[in-house]
Amino acid sequence: MDNFKTLKETEELVTDSNNRYKITIELANIAKRYEYEFKNIPKSNLATREKPIIVGLKLMVKKASIE
User: Fold this and answer.
1) Where are the domains of the chain?
2) Per-residue model confidence as pLDDT tens digits over 25-43
């Protein structure tokens, strides 16, 4: 169910945006930042961690809900 919620919130973010290109670039930059952290995690813990792109999406949705 968490994946469905994330998908729905992302869809709302894109639908409500005026500039999809800006959102794409911002998301890519956030994901790049978290990718370095993701690479330093031991392989045994990778299954429990979210991928950088998912972390970026959640941060953007949270940021959009505050504004």
Assistant:
1) 19-66
2) 988 998 888 877 777 666 6
